[in-house]
Amino acid sequence: MQSWVPGESVWTLDLFVIANLSLVMGLYLWGVRRIRLRGLSWSPWSTLSMVVGLSPLGAAYLGPFETLAHSYFWAHMAQHLTVMMLAAPFIVLSCPVSLLVLATSGATRAAIIRALRSRIGLFLVNPIFTWALFALVLIGTHIPPVMDWVLGDHDAMAFVERPLYLIAALLFYYPLIGKDMCARRPRPPYRVLSLGLMMIPETMLGAIIFLSPLALYPSYVAAAERLGYDPLFDQQLAGALMWALTMVIDSFWMMLAAIEWWRSEERRTARRERQEQAQEVA
Fold this sequence. Notes:
By secondary structure, this protein is mainly α. The protein has one domain. 78% of the residues lie in helices and 0% in strands. The chain contains 14 helices and no strands.
């Protein structure tokens, strides 16, 4: 694990991350342009959501968090929270699946729709599976041997941990918030419930890390000895971030799901009233 040295720049120039973020944004804008050339409209709010979603990824993996995460546990935890609870849900709100379907045609579009409706596709958006995957990734990567393996192996961090965090979070939020195309979306009450239940593993993990009387991660203990800070305080700060911030951010996404629930009830009530009026006229 390469530790940051005071006096060095805290900004990271990772061409792999820059290339991937640029590619995703470029493909998204290409899709928007393609459907507009077909005479279809696309919400600018969806495009803005993609920009907002990719920005935290850049902040997590190119900014100070990326550099400091090799030396400070709190910075590593901030990366996790940024990716799983900010970047992923905003990417979901950009409706990438709907854009993909609208931007393709013929056999390609049919294949995508079949995949969404397939057993595997439906299983991947099952709230029970997505909740379990999210919790497993969150807790499993904070087991001390796993954490030390990731911190000491660049490939494990770049090609295992980071993709797992983003994929698990995207799958979790995809059927629960927003209006993206989903073959089987849970009923609104279950969406709010699922988002609320995610607080359980998040707060439990944060509390365990915060309340532990011993420093849990040897890699950060070694970094603390080199840089001269208290590893237990660093760990408590990381645990506090997980414990407190997740409740605040989760509450925001629960509120969004609750608003969507309220609007769906309003639409249902309006449809029922129109049907009753039509029956009275007949």
